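Weekly structure sync, notes
Attendees: PL (lead), two postdocs, one rotation student
Agenda item 3: pending single-chain targets
PL asked that the sequence for the first pending target be pasted directly into the notes so everyone works from the same version. It is reproduced below exactly as submitted, 233 residues in total.
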Amino acid sequence: MLYDILKPIVLAFMRLYFRLESRGHEHVPRQGPVLLVANHSSALDPPLVGGVCPRPLSFLAKAQLFEIPVFGALIRRLNARPLRREGADASALRTALRLLGEGAALLVFPEGTRGPEGTLREPKTGAAMLAVLGGVPVVPVFISGSGRALPRGRRLPQPVKVRVTFGPPLAFERPAAGRKEHYEAVSRQMMAGIARLRDAATGDASPVGAGDEEGRPDGGAGVIQARRSLQIH
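Predicted structure, written out during the meeting:
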């Protein structure tokens, strides 16, 4: 598999160029479906987490990338799956649930889009829906340094030190009622798990999102929000 061939090469480069370190590998289940949820500050985040994760990861990427000659075929062979951003269909959620149903380890970003280094923003509910509907363990991940290495708008990465930390798995049950509120609560718990890793790594206790560490509701748990929260930018 191309993924297995390229992973050690890319990892060696990242360890040299970014002085990449990783911690908490023991928290990632070696078999069975698992959802990894991480903060998102850079386009480098997927390969950084994939490089140090002890098992192959699957990703979701916007469908337009798959239309690029050669590149589209390449990322598909690297376990990426297309994600359409237009419309209100549930294709992204179905794709992600299918991957989990096949026993994959899937990386998603609850914040949906890239933000400033070290800042945890309000989560959307797509990752929570995956965790609850899929009934899978959730491993929080904190990525430190990627937003300085390659922030939004920069073309070439800088040799900035990067660290990836995996936290203990979280488990969430299906709600008996009030699914919207339950998804919002699960989303906040996911971000709180990431925040604990950030605080332990940096000594920073700044809040998640614009409110307190519990965050604020994102205004709904509809299919459009689920789809957007799974996007990789």
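Discussion points:
- The chain has one domain: 2-18+30-150+161-229.
- The chain has a mean pLDDT of 85.
Action: rotation student to compare against the earlier draft before next sync.
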